[in-house]
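Hi there, hope your week has been kind to you so far. Do you reckon you could talk me through the fold, stretch by stretch? I've dropped the whole record in just underneath, so have a look:
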Amino acid sequence: MPKTVMIVDDSASLRQVVKMALTGAGYEVMEAGDGQEALTRLEGKKVQLVISDVNMPRMDGITFVKQLKQRPEYRFVPVIMLTTEGQDSKKEEGRAAGAKAWMVKPFQPAQMLAAVSKLVGP
C-alpha cells in the first residue's frame, strides 16, 4: 500500500510541484492550504509524513506542527518544514515544535524525495 504524505502550503503552485514529485515516486498525496485546513483534513486519516510551509495564513506551520503533535495518532508522524525561512532561530522553533527536517525554498525535488524516503522509506 502506498504511503501517504500531507502537503501543507498556501501556494497552490508549490503544492503542485511537491505533489508531482511525490506521486511520481509512488506516494499518495493529500493537500491543505494552511495548518487549520490540514488538521481538519487529517481527521481520522492515516499519513506517514507531513511536509509543511512555515508562513501561512490562519495557522502557520509551527503552530500546526505543535497542534499535530498533541494528537496521539500523529505524535510520531515525521514533519519536514519546507520554507523560505532559513534562520537558525526559526529552525530551532520548528525542531522544538516537533519537525524532523528543514528544507529551504527553492528546493530540488530529488533532495526532497531523498529526505522523504529517509524518514518514511520508499
User: Anything to note?
Assistant: The mean pLDDT is 95. The first helix runs from residue 12 to 24. The first strand starts at residue 4 and ends at 8.
